[in-house]
Amino acid sequence: MFKAELERGLDVYLFMMDKDHRLPIENYTGFVAYRNGVPLGYGGGWIFIDRCEIGVNIFETFRGGENNLIFINIMRVYNMVFGVSKFVVPPYQFGEDNEEGLQSGAFWFYYKLGYRSCDASIKKIADKEWLKINSKKGYRTPITVLKKFTESPVELILKKSLFHFEPKQLSIAITRFVAKKFEGNHEMAIAWSLRILRNFNGAEGFQKWPTAEKNTFKYLSILVAACAQQTVFTNEEQESIVTVLRKKGSDEMAFSIAIKKEIKLLKLIQQFVRKFDSTM
Question: Looking at the whole model, is its pTM more than 0.85?
């Protein structure tokens, strides 16, 4: 658990998933926020490199004028701890299968904080609606338009990233790679990738590692082995990669910070995704 002490008595506690329930690629980090010892809300972030898909629930008693400040500070914590430079809010948070989100116009809460639709056409509609809101007294966006907004997530980009792929795209690429090279036999793919990675510097004594570390190493080994076919990793690079993969099973906070430093590996992963995922 990690505690961030902020201004005005606001404390944010971060906590990781237990080792048996961690996601294979992303790092889910939950939070609980307190002010002067009183809980204000909870939620979590799905962290992947420098992107964080975030969900927040502020208790009804504390909703109102300070919602913005609370949410900004929660994002601030994820930025400080993980170096997150892009936040994404899924449509449920502002109305998809969420009547309260529609009726409250939650989309505009995020819009006022700088979030914009990931869909260019929806962004144009939202910009026009915002002009109406500011020019027509008493104007409210129709529910049909608010529902239209939920066809796409919204994002806040603090800094442009070098990498433009999502965990879903990565999973699709791995599945297609296994289908093409191993006729869909996942066990055969893992055996092949482990033969490669267990020769990496730092992978000695693999069988004696904690179970969680071995599991994450196995899952991510296919991806790294595929990248290793495209380049030669130095001994130092091999050891660094092995250390990062082990962290996924032992210390996810450290993993999320360390993986961003593996620029060469991440560039190769992006090329891998582009090759096997047609949505890029």
Answer: yes
